[in-house]
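Lab meeting, action items carried over

1. Structure of the two-component assembly. Owner: GW. Status: complete.
Input record:
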Amino acid sequence: MADVSLHMPHSDGLRRDGRLERLRLFGLSSPALLMVLVVLVIPVGWLFYVSFIGANGQFSLENYERMIERKSYYRIFVTTFQVSFLTTGLCILIGYPLAYFMSQLPNRWANIALITVLVPFWTSLLVRTYAWLVLLQKQGLVNQWAISLGVWDEPIKIVHNMTGTLIGMVHIMLPFLILPVYNAMKAIDHDYLKAASNLGASPRRAFWTVFFPLSAPGLLAGSLMVFVLCLGFFVTPAVLGGGKVIMVSMKIVSNIELFVNWGAASALGVVLLVLTVAILWVASRFTSLSNMTGGGH
Amino acid sequence: MLGWLKSPASDTQVTHGQRLWLYVFAGVVMFLLVVPTLIVIPMSFSDSQYLEFPPENWSLRWYRNYFGSPEWMQATATSLKAAFLTMLVATPVGVVAAYGLHCCGVRFVQVAYLALITPMMVPVVLVAIGAFYVFVKLSLLYSLTGLVLAHSVLALPLVIIVTGSALKSYDMNQELAARSLSAPRWKAFLTITVPQIRFAIVTAALLAFLTSFDEVVVAMFISGGDNPTLTRNMFNALRDQIDPTIAAISTIMIIITSVMMALAQIFGRGTPEK
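Predicted assembly:
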């Protein structure tokens, strides 16, 4: 259309109308942008500002210095990374084979298997965390069954500590890993593997040199998504960690709820945000963001 | 059976027998993905203080406890209202934004798109304390309006992603045809485009509902006073002790989610999952 209009007498006017029209269309997104501005951009900008204000109301770096000086903050960051790495690693070990299994099924069965991944995805996070709390407690089902089957002799502590937190986190994060990996695997052309086989590659070699590299972008996208979500996680470690697993987001909340220290909370928040953005930025160099969010393919 | 075990399963001629371990492993993982959550359902019908499975005596006492408590009822009403209103706000705002960004072709579309999906990327704790601060200034704290506003922002990325990917596979020329027959743009959008992407819109709406209904952290900060949400009260109860009433509430929440999911499956066929 544009090509035709260029050669018409009123082409300038038409072009101006076109530009106006495009701007008007862009304007359709303004209510959404305004909402994000009010609820997210301005408040986060303000937190950024507050993080540089000291106790005396002047500009200061004390909120950041505290993070470096105090052992307790150091431990919180170590715990946060520990939980995030372990959760991501376990999700890969458990999720990749399951995604592979699903990608090999005929479509109808794959859809049924997919439901088992989507059901927990849709179920309330709080409900799932609660279920694990119930199952893992001292008199819980897991202890009961383990004792009656002779796996261990007396009730052991599997919740209100790191173990319980990891179990809950892995359960909650698995779908975020499985879905992008599964999508990547579904897109792999079976002929490549047949060709590798034909050319004499062993099944193992064909898998590692052909299939795995082709599924790697999905795996990378899924793992980074899980890792980033873990960094900022709150509910599950707060409930299943029993006060022994303190992550950054929990310290932010307690800084405000208990100590009403906005400076300290903001500085932690800024660090958390910068880490998240940095990881996503690095990720976006290797894989498209829409890959990670599961949409737009 | 033996024949099946020896038959080739993969493109590289690995037999079913050779990868039996994979089938067993996948079965166990799928079981662990679904069943642990569902076990709360039979437990909620137990008569005992301590959640047991299988329950020795069945009873509805925890449900009576829940339905008889004005606090829980009020919190449930707040959550349902907030979720419903979030759906009503986030869906049209998100759909219209996705449409505008899809069609306009302005240079900074990518930036706007990125800005609109940031609520999904920013750690939710930051959204929570940030919204808390702003809502104090706007005196929206503990109000339903504030809660709906914050939850809508959290739901927007999902609505935009789901609608956006539906628009990508939609042929815009159809709208052009309608407009060349003198339909105004908004009319072409409503009568030609919307009916064809309605599955995506329904999915997006349900996701918006669930986003609000399940949300804990933001609600912890900005809901309260006369308007605490169900999840806020549940979270606080969880921190103190394991109250079996939560099992009853969880069961009800699982039912609500399942109904939503079934609706999305019925209406949302052909659109990507979440």
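2. GW to write a short summary for the group page. Key points so far: Chain B touches chain A through 91 residues (CB under 8 Å). The radius of gyration of chain B is 24 Å.
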